[in-house]
Amino acid sequence: MNPLLVKQKLATFLTEDIQQEDLSASAIFTDRQQGTGVFIAKATGILAGVDLAEVAYELLGGQVSVTKIKQDGDQVEPLDELLTVRGPVRTLLSAERVILNLMQRMSGIATLTSQAVKTLDDPAIRITDTRKTAPGLRMFDKYAVSVGGGTNHRFGLYDGIMLKDNHIAFAGGIREAVKAARLAAGQMVKIEVEVETKAQLLEAIAAEADIIMFDNRTPEEIKSWQPLVPASIQTEISGGITMRNLPSYRGTGADSLSLGFLTHSVQALDISFNYKGEK
Fold first, then answer.
1. Cα(113)–Cα(134) distance, integer angstroms
2. Residue 152 and which of 110, 130, 166, 255 are 20 to 30 A apart at CA?
3. Is 155 exposed, middle or buried (0-12, 13-18, 19+ CB in 10 A)?
């Protein structure tokens, strides 16, 4: 993750939560009172976002020492200590919820991604994410996918051309859409085309798309279509895939398989922050 963007995002999140003052912490503690706390896992999963705590505390004035016990990508179990922090009690408490919200969500995404990779059990097919992320959290969501063993699809509308059904319909067909996109795109930008029928597949091949997405196609259809695609064109599977039917796509021959549920339906990993006393 870009450290400058991480700081900008965390500053926004902390400002949203604290505004002028953390009334609860300020009412009880002076700015000189010190304390120690610990972040603890309460469920089994893959940890992601552990580095964010240090950045959050730095934005609130620093003076907090952070000791990481676990690292991103580590599997954690209930009661595992993830990191301990020591510093002004006000700072520890004011940043607690923002840090937890991000770590819990990111760890949930990393855990689900790891499960998806293991469930597919096909090293020839990359598990990728989509743009179905929480607004404002895409950088964190996609980083968590990579921590869980997945890869990132395009980050937004700006770093890749994907011609979907509506693009194709408005353009008058796949050939027309690809031709217009090719004329406008730089040589570093790939063009992906979504297909739902064999006729569309053949048209996308003739148009020399860089990537062809098999949209909402069965494993049997993909297996029969894949040999038609030249080696110069990558293929992607997307749509209608769940953890339950994911194994059926094993051995289909595609290069990647994108899963929206990695980020749009994730269950946060339970993590807590507890007082550890003064030392």
1. 16
2. 166
3. middle
Report strand pairing: 75-76 vs 126-128: unpaired
Tell me the CATH number of domain 117-264, given options 3.40.50.2300, 3.30.470.30, 3.20.20.70, 1.20.1260.10: 3.20.20.70
What's the CA gap between 198 and 14, in Å, rounded?
51
pLDDT band at 279 (very low <50, low <70, confident <90, very high): very low
State the architecture of 3-110+267-275 in CATH terms: Alpha-Beta Complex (3.90)
Residue 207 CB coordination number (10 Å): 20
pLDDT digits (tens, 9 = 90+) for 211-262: 999 999 999 999 999 999 999 999 999 999 999 999 999 999 999 999 999 9
Q: Which residues are catalytic?
A: 97, 132, 164, 194, 215
Asked if the model's pLDDT at residue 187 lies above 90, the reply is no
Return the CA Rg of the chain.
23
